[in-house]
Please model this.
Amino acid sequence: MLCPLEQRIQYLLQQCTFNQLKQIHAFILTTSLLHDIHIKSKFLRRSTEFGAMEYPNLVFSQLGGFSNTEVMVWNAMIRGYAYNGPFDGCIYMFDEMLQRGLKHNNFTYPYVLSSCSEMGWFGKGRKVHAQIIKSGFESNFVVSDSLLNMYMKMSDSFELGDTRNGKLNDARMIFDDTCVKPVELWNRVISKYVSTGDIESARQLFDNMPERDVISWNSMISGYARIGDVANARDLFEKIPEKNVVTWTSMIGAYSGSGDLKTAACLFEKMPCRNVVSWNAMISSYTQNGKYEESLDLFVKMQLEGVDSDGFTFVSVLSSCSNLGALGFGKWLHSLINDWSQLGVIVGTALMEMYAKCGDVNSAFTMFIKIWNKDVFCWNVMIKSLAIHGRIEDAVKLFFLMQKIGLKPNSFTFSSTLFACCHGGLVEVGREIFHSMERDFGVCPKLEHYGCLIDLLSRNGRLGEAEALVREMPFKPDIAVWGALLGGCRVKSDLKLAEEVIEKASVLEANEPGVYVLLSNIYASAGQWQEALTAREKMEEKKVWKKAGSSSVIHDHDHDLSMDG
Model:
């Protein structure tokens, strides 16, 4: 039985601050408690709970360091490294125990397996597993649970497909060999199968469960929703003993994912209880399916019912505003966000994009300036927005500025910047940016990047260089590339090359009327009216038509939007 002093020390250790811990340390060093292994190990364990390992290492050295033979002391250090890092320190301590003839126990292995998972050292994890089998701890629930976690995490380190599911078989074997399987354990494995897309294995486990809770049912419903199997999702939805808000929301996602927004909306209205996630699911469903007005109407209803919006809400609704060009509604949304900086860069970027797409590029740029911790996507959106609105120099300046502050441009950054150069006639700048992609940033140019440069060269009279680039690029030209080259033919009035381009473009069998219209215009500008008529007749033969342009007027009165074509 513990003496009163030991009891007092253990009580203080549970709630002490770091400074108080040092005082307790000094007290232990001056009393007989220094020789109490339980007090020493608990003190060391507590010292590892303040986020760093410098002080625990000092304590460990005072307790004899590597010459200490108490497994509890070593376990305390291994636990500390597993929580605080560096994780290889945990593995080193584990291996050092073996070298010194100390036996690992069921308190050692879980932390070592966790560290192996964190570092991706799954080969080492397998070796630890072999040691667990030899030492007879594989039947211990905590150890087997840690093994299961490691093998499930191992499956994440492989590409999607047979390889991942093959690696998940290791986790399944651990699960099958586990003696005690609480419902939470079943749910974790089912959820893992669902996340890898193996719904068949998930359903097999689900059907074999001795008991299920609402999480079990929800995992399967969401799994069927993910693969578009609405029938099975609905079957489970009808059979579940007790539905919660997640159940309803998952089923709404299943219907909206299949394009059945009518049934999704019907379920949403029948929900006995809705939270912000439910509202977001329905609003985003409308947005993703192009029902932008319905998305805005539902947001208004959400406001009237007093449901607090979050960042996901605003991103979906702002996207609808962007697509509708509903600047008034977007400004109202902006006014509802009391502190958008707290909602993160994603909401700030959505606001910025809304202003840009609605034509107010100055407000978009103001938003851009205000956003802290801008990511590459945020810069990309602003560069593209400036380019679209003719602010070519500003777009290119941003491209170079983002590099100065240490952000690495990605494929989309280059597409946006090359687009700006193309529409601003910046041939030399555009050419240099294109060549810097792989040379300076390791970004391999895609067909769209070649297309931008070809368009830039063609627009500015560099037809020979553009034609050479088409021949040399490692991609087969698509209709956009041929169209850009054809545009250059019009600039240079090169009828021969234009005819060659049309012949090669026709092989693609793309129903793109623009190339024939462009060829017809080239002939017409050269006075070759019969050839111009022939080009138009070919359009009719291929049954491709150039659609007339159209516009929409949006009436924005008290945030009630309607479209008039």
In short: Residues 516 and 537 are 9 Å apart (CA to CA). Residues 159-164, 547-552, 557-565 have pLDDT under 50 and may be disordered.
